[in-house]
């Protein structure tokens, strides 16, 4: 028995790495060189950085099996080198995600899932209206209004002076 209780969280001195591939929801393959002792949670963090998706929304699937235990490592899941994992987004009750229309005025485009959600207002936007400026974000409007009011005040005070001067 060479495999003693060395399953500690500290990295061993001679760690092997292997290459795996992760296919994301859009079909892009992301190659990763990682250690077989990498946990699913670490892998999800890496993928969240690569895909700009929130970690909580990433589901990893290998050979049809959902890798749901985040503390389990790749070797414990018996994932061999050069395997392809699949990235899936959560399905609510087995139903496909509801199509959301872009919230911008009368835009008919589909809102982009997750990346189309604006962090400054409650809207969901398509690729064209995703940015604050493009959908005239409420959050942005507040800032504009403030500076506009400040300008108006200034104008009013100037006008008062002018009237007084007549
Ligand atoms: Zn739009
Ligand atoms: Zn917004």
Automatic annotation (TrEMBL):
SMART domains, per the entry: UBQ, ZnF_AN1
Keyword Cytoplasm assigned: no
Keywords: Metal-binding, Zinc, Zinc-finger
Keyword Metal-binding appears in the UniProt entry: yes
GO MF entries: zinc ion binding
One Pfam family this sequence matches: zf-AN1
InterPro entries found in the cross-reference section: AN1-like_Znf, Ubiquitin-like_dom, Ubiquitin-like_domsf, Ubiquitin_ubiquitin-like, Znf_AN1
Domain (AN1-type) ranges: 96-145
Regions that span the bilayer: none
All residue ranges annotated as the Ubiquitin-like domain in the record: 18-94
Protein name listed in UniProt: Ubiquitin-like protein
Organism: Aaosphaeria arxii CBS 175.79
């Amino acid at each position: 028995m060479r495999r003693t209780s060395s399953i500690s969280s500290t990295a061993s001195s001679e760690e092997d790495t292997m290459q795996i591939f992760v296919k994301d929801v859009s079909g892009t393959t992301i190659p990763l060189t990682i250690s077989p002792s990498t946990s699913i949670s670490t892998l999800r963090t890496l993928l969240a950085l690569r895909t700009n998706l929130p970690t909580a929304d990433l589901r990893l699937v290998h050979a049809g099996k959902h890798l749901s235990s985040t503390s389990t490592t790749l070797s414990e899941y018996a994932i061999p080198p050069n395997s392809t994992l699949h990235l899936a987004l959560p399905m609510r009750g087995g139903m496909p995600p509801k199509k959301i229309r872009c919230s911008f005025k009368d835009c008919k485009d589909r809102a982009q899932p997750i990346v189309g959600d604006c962090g400054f207002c409650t809207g969901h936007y398509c690729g064209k209206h995703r940015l604050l400026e493009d959908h005239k974000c409420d959050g942005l409007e507040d800032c504009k209004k403030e500076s506009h009011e400040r300008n108006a005040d200034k104008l009013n005070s100037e006008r008062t002076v002018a009237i007084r001067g007549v």
